[in-house]
Amino acid sequence: MMPVTLFLALGAILFCIGLYGVLTRRHIVVVLVCIELMLNSVNINLVAFSSVGPVANVTGQVFSLFVITIAAAEVAVGLAILIALYRNRASIDVIKHDLLRSS
Amino acid sequence: MIQNAWLIPVFPLIAFVVLLLFGRVLREKAAYVGITALALSFIFAVAVLFERIGGETYTFVVDWITFGESTVTMGYEVTPLNAMMLIVVTLVSLVVHIFSRDYMHEDDRIHVFYSYLGLFSFSMLGLVLAPNILQLFIFWELVGLCSFLLVGFWYYKPEAASAAKKAFLTTRVGDVGLLIGIVLLFNATGSFEYADAFAAVEAGLISDTMVTVIALCIFLGAVGKSAQFPLHVWLPDAMEGPTPVSALIHAATMVAAGVYLVGVMYPFFLASDTALTIVAYVGAITAIFAATIALVNHDIKRILAYSTISQLGFMMLALGTAGYVAGLFHLMTHAFFKALLFLGAGSVIYGVHHRQDIREMGGLWRRMKVTSVTFLIGALAIAGIFPLAGFWSKEEIFASVLANGDPFLFAIALITAFMTAFYMFRLFFKAFTGEFRGDHEPHENNGFMTLPLIVLGILAVVAGFVNAPFTGHALEGFLTEGIAVGEQAHGGFGLAVVSLLIAIGGIFLAWVIYGKRSISEDFLPGKFRAAHRLLMNKYFMDELYTVVFVRPCVGIGKALYAIDRFIVDGIVNLLAVVTRSVGSGLGKRQTGQFQTYGVVTIIGGIAVVALAFMLRGYFG
């Protein structure tokens, strides 16, 4: 049996890569992909605890299925927003989308 | 009729309101509104005087404010003194209204001028009718305001604007004294009524020191208003106003209000020898002081202004030496002949195209007949030539000073009378005889300007008869009725001859120098160079006041301004600058880049977690 720590480490590494990508990439689709990465790192945690955790049961796997569903919906909405944004501003560079700036 | 005396000040007030509302429409017709109002006032005043001569003092008052034991009243009163004043004020105001129609017709703001004249007439008549000293004080301030407005009528001229300010501020010094006097009087007697004050003095309810202090405070108000030394400096500058205003306000009525005030409060002054002596000496000093300046001045209006100050000093001198009737008699005669002289000067100024320097006149006798003759009458009257008005009143003053004053005061009075005759005829000979020295040919003015001169000219001849020996001193009997002012002195034949000789002497000297030119004009100034320089510079009084009062005040003002500007404003501005720079500094951090926000959020989250761990001791 592999210790739970290894799975958690994998999840943490994956989360950090995703977070780094979200904070640094300028291509807006890549940012969205990185968000998926972060969600999947959470899934790894859920599944890991459900199989090798101290109180192993099926709840974690069910939760991960929920997360995958929500993520799919989120990607659909996110991509729709991206298309609308691209049509309006003709750019997929996140730096150029700065409407929140103080004038 | 006497019950309707309150209408006398109301007519000019109506004229003022009408001109305020419709002045722009009426324009030059505004003159007729003012003239009508004053004519009505004058008719009423004459009726009131005749009724008063045969009747009793009429008083009508209503309660105004009641507090504690005291009640302040408001109303009007017709005593012999104010019945006489009503005639003087309405008559002079009427002729000035008539005179101004042409004198001011070139001015775009003639309707404003007439509305101010109306307001002034209302205030002055209200002052005269006031039954108590508080009401008098209200109108006292109102006439001061009108004086300010009219002196500064041509406010676009810097001299006029600053003269108006000077007049207002200088009289304000006296008014503060008057206000203090009124407060002290109320404190001592619990009433503002004249009668209560006199009764309290008679019953000895007020200590002698207090009577003197109150009398002197009230006198300070009179000093300011009547331009007595040392608060006389505003009156010559007030000549920047239109000439009819100088005739009405600064010769006949408002400046006489100070003398009137002392007259109204006379029993109070009589109770204090110290106060009376001070009144007499201030009057005497003012009389000779102003007369000496008038000897050398070249501005026709300023000579008359100094002459007015000098004559007001004469009135104060008379009042200060128990000459109650003499002072008020001179007030009346002076109002007529000085208004005549000022309007004559106005006619001359208008005729020679707005020149005021007598060196640029000359030879007007042939060119302006009516003006010249009436001016000569005025000059003879003020010099005190028999049988003109000034002779009778001045002789009364001499008698009063001789009887109750000391020889020093009498000497001053005689010297001043000599100077008066001299400077008036210096003015007359320089302006009206010899060759014309100006550049525009002068012309006589039409009836609207000469009629007032003729009316006042007649009055300057006959006004003195009301208190002459051959009418049995009628005015004296009238004025002293029901008021305890003591025995009035009368001069005999000898004194009359002396005063006449002095007047003739002054005129003769003026004729020798300026008429016949036997002595050069420059002989005396050359002989007494230092004295001449002193007089030309008006004893350096303005310069002295500039150094002693104006500069320190301006200095304090500048220091306070600097404190306000740099310290108070500095603190406020500092707060604003800090707030704004913090705001703009933080605003720059709002880049609109969600990734930047994300970084900050993550770092903050990590910092919070790390802090929690450290404080809980999870790291060791």
Polypeptide structure, described:
The complex is a heterodimer of chains A (103) and B (620). By secondary structure, chain A is mainly α. Helices cover 75% and strands 0% of the residues of chain A. Chain B is mainly alpha-helical and 620 residues long. Chain B has four domains: 1-131; 272-536, no CATH class; 538-589; 594-620. The mean pLDDT of chain B is 88. Classes of the chains: A mainly alpha (103), B mainly alpha (620). The interface between A and B is medium-sized, with 12 and 12 residues. Chain B: The chain crosses the membrane at residues 6-23, 30-50, 81-100, 112-130, 136-156, 168-186, 198-224, 245-269, 275-296, 303-329, 335-352, 373-393, 408-429, 450-470, 490-514, 597-619.
Detail the topology: elements first, then pairings:
The complex is a heterodimer of chains A (103) and B (620).
Chain A lengths: L3 H21 L3 H25 L6 H31 L14
Chain B lengths: L6 H20 L3 H25 L3 E10 L2 E9 L1 H24 L6 H20 L3 H19 L6 H32 L4 H9 L5 H18 L8 H4 L5 H10 L3 H9 L1 H5 L2 H22 L5 H21 L3 H28 L12 H4 L1 H15 L5 H16 L2 H26 L14 H16 L11 H6 L13 H23 L7 H5 L1 H8 L4 H49 L4 H23 L4
Antiparallel strand pairs in B: 1-2
Helix pairs in contact in B: 1-2, 1-4, 2-3, 2-4, 3-4, 3-10, 3-15, 3-20, 4-5, 5-6, 6-8, 8-11, 8-13, 10-15, 11-14, 11-15, 13-14, 13-19, 14-15, 14-18, 14-19, 15-17, 15-18, 15-20, 17-19, 17-20, 18-19, 18-22, 19-22
Helix content of chain B: over 70%
Rg of chain B: 31 Å
Q: Which parts of chain B are unreliable, with pLDDT below 50 for 5 consecutive residues or more?
A: none
Element-level helix/strand string of chain B: HHEEHHHHHHHHHHHHHHHHHHHHHHHH
Q: Report mean pLDDT of chain B, rounded to a whole number.
A: 88
Uncertain stretches of 5 or more adjacent residues of chain A: none
Roughly how much helix do the residues of chain A carry, as a percent range? over 70%
